[in-house]
Amino acid sequence: MKVLLIATNRERRPSFAVPAGVAYLQTALIDAGHEARILDLCFDPDDRLEGRVTEAIGEYGPDLIGVSVRNIDNETYLQYRGNLGDVKIVLGACRAASAAPVVLGGSAFSLMPVEIMNVLGADLGVIGEGEPAMVAIADALAEGRPITDAPGLLRREGTRVSVSEPARVSDPGSIVAPRYFVPDSRYFSTQVVGPQPTYGIQTKRGCAFRCSYCPVPSIEGKRFRLRSPAHIVDEMRHVRDLAGVKRFFITDSIFNLPRRHAIAVCEEMVAADLGVTWMAYTNPLQYDDDLALLFKRAGCETLNFGLDAGCDEMLTSLQKDFTVADIENATACARRAGVRIIHSLLLGGPGETADTVARTLDTMDRCAPDILTIAFGIRVYPKTPLWQDIGSRPGRPDLDMLQAVFYVDEALGPAECRTILRSIEEFVETHPKIMVRMNFDPKNLEAEVSTSSLRISAQAGAGRKAR
Predict the structure, then answer these.
(1) Which of 102, 168, 175, 465 has the fewest Cβ atoms within 10 angstroms?
(2) What is the pTM of this model?
(3) What is the pLDDT of residues 38-69, one digit of tens each?
(4) CA–CA distance, 461 with 401 (Å, rounded to integer)
C-alpha cells in the first residue's frame, strides 16, 4: 500500500516546526510493510500549494492519502490568522488528482474533528494518535477489508459524521523514532527561522494537569505516557547524524514532570554525550539545584516556564498547580545552574484586572528572566475547563469554535487596558536587560480589546460576543 502523508502546517511563529509527528506516521507505516512518502508544504507559497499536491500525487500514485492538520490558527488574539484555508486547498487538490481515500488527522484536527470535517467537506478522519489508526487503515485497504474497525476513525455517513474513541499507542515505550524522513535544511537555517532553529522531540505523551485553557489532555490523554529514555536519545542521535541538528526542542507540555522520568532522560543524555543542546517547556514545581544542574549537564540551554501569570490569584483562576513561591524558587535554581530563562505570560483570563497584571509584573521584576513573552487573550478550545465553564453559565452562547473565540475578561475595558499598557511600558523601560516580546501592538491594544468581535465575557450574561 502506497501512502502519501501531507504536512500542511506553514505557521512560522515563533519558528517553523519540523513535521516530526508525520515522520512518526511514516516510520510506523513502513515498519508495518507499507510504502510511505511525506509531502512537506511548510515553505511553499500560497500560489504553489495546489500545484505541489497535484505534482506529488501524479508522481507517486498513492493508494491512501493522509493530511495532517497541526494548527487551526496561530492562537494570537490581536494578530489572528487561520490555517484551515490551506487545508481546504490541499484537500481539493487531492480529490481532483486521485481517487485514493483522503484521511484528515493531526493534533488540531483531534480538537474539533466533526466541525473541521464539516467545514472542509471531508469524508474520513482519525482522532488521537495516528500511528495505530493509519496503519490499521492501510492494512485494511491492502487486504480488501472495510476500514470501519480502524481505531479513532471518523466517517461521513450521509449528513452526519460517526465518531470513535481517540486512537492511542498502547505502549508509548515502543514508539520508534523516525528513520526515513530527511527534514528540509531550511528548518535549521537561521536566515529562515531566526536565531535558534530546533528539532522538536517528545519524551512522553499526555498531561496529568488541567490548566483551564489547555487542550493537550483531550488530544493526548489525561495521564503521562512515558517513552523510553534510550529511545529518546537514540532519536536525537539519529536526527543529529542525519540532518546535522545540534539543537532540540523538547515539546512535552511539561518536561520536568514526572521528575523521575526527566532525571532518567537527562542521565541518558549525559551518558550518550551527544554534543547537542536543548530547550524545553517546564513547570516550576519540584525544582531544586540538583535537578537544574543535571539539566545543564545534559545540554539544557533554555527553560521556558509557561507560567501564564505571576500572582497567586490568577494562577488559581487558570487552574495552575504552582504558586508564586514555586516560580521564584525554580527561577533561582535555573539561574544558578546557568540556564537561560523564559517566562511566558497569558493575560486577560478570568478575574484579570490591572492590579493582577501589576502584581504579575512585580514577580517578573523579582525573577528577572532573560526573556519575557506576553500574550493577550486566551484561545478557547472545546473540552477544556474554560470551555466547560463558559458553557455552564446562564445564557450560554452558541459558540462556533472554528471562528476562533478568545476569552478576555469583561473587566478589562479601555481604562484598564491603558493602565496595563503603562505597567508593561514601565517594566520594559526599567528592565533593559530583559528581552520583552509581545504578541500584540501596544498602540492598538485598547482599541482592539474594546471592539474585537472575538472577545467574549464571563460576567453576567456570560459568553456574549462583544459588540
Answers:
(1) 465
(2) 0.85
(3) 999 999 988 999 999 999 999 999 999 999 99
(4) 19
